[in-house]
Structure formats: structure tokens, C-alpha cells
Amino acid sequence: QVRVAESGGGLVQAGGSLRLSCVASGRTLGNVAMGWFRQAPGKEREFVAGVNWSGGRTTYADSVSGRFTVHRGNAKNAMYLQMNSLEAEDTAVYYCVADRTTYGSGIESTFDNYDYWGQGTQVTVSS
Asked: What are 67's strand-pairing partners?
């Protein structure tokens, strides 16, 4: 059974930084696309960032581009989201997701197109 688990959330002041981690277990996810979504209270879940199976291609939501960086770990079952210059609007539960398709050509930005996801980690940015 595949499991993905996020960690690294917390409370930070506006302008600060956090690094989220996602680790997968149960099968190797080193050859699939992975990504991050978030959901703020009263809002729909939205795509944040994604990385392709090799780690060579990334994509970001406009709202985080230039502030957030997604990358895969040396052990390909791990993925990280470095979040800098955090804003109050970044407050949300952040979810790690992973695709099932190996060596896929794209990075999905729709949550339902992913096959595995974690329980989420809370990020709170105080203004």
C-alpha cells in the first residue's frame, strides 16, 4: 500500500520561510510526477507546485512563483517545498500528491488526476 506523508508545517511570521517535506513508502515513487496542493478555510483546494518524474521540470501556480521552490530529494521517494517570503494568504493545509503513471510526460495541476495523497500539514502565516 502506498503512503505519502507530509511534514514541516507550522506557524511563521509574514516574510518568513518554511520547508515542507513529503516522503512516500510502499512503492518507489522515483519515476512518477509529484506535487503540492493547498486548501485554505472556506476555499477550494488549489494547485501549488509540481515536479516531473525526473525532477528536471517543475511548474508553479502564479501566486507562488518566485517565492516557492519544489524539488525531489536524492532518494527519489522524497519531495520538498521551500517556501520563502510567506504571506498571510499562504495559510492553508498543504497536501503532497503523487501520480501512479510512471515516466509520464506532464505534471498534473488537477487534484483528482493524482492517485496518492497525504493527510496534509498546516501552514499558518501571521501578518
From this structure: none
Q: Residue 18 pLDDT more than 90?
A: yes
Beta strand residue intervals within 3-111, DSSP E:
3-7, 10-13, 18-25, 32-39, 46-51, 58-60, 68-72, 78-83, 92-102
pLDDT digits (tens, 9 = 90+) for 19-70: 999 998 887 778 889 999 999 999 999 999 999 998 899 999 999 999 999 9
- Integer distance in angstroms from the first to the last C-alpha of the chain? 40
Rounded to whole angstroms, how far apart are CA atoms 67 and 91? 14
Per-residue pLDDT, 2:
84
Q: Which of 85, 89, 37, 32 lies closest to 61 in space, CA to CA?
A: 37
Contact 79, 72 (CB under 8 A): yes
Query: Positive or negative, the Cα torsion across 83, 88, 93, 95?
Result: negative
Give the number of other CB atoms < 10 A from CB of residue 22.
29
Element (H, E) at 126: strand 121-126
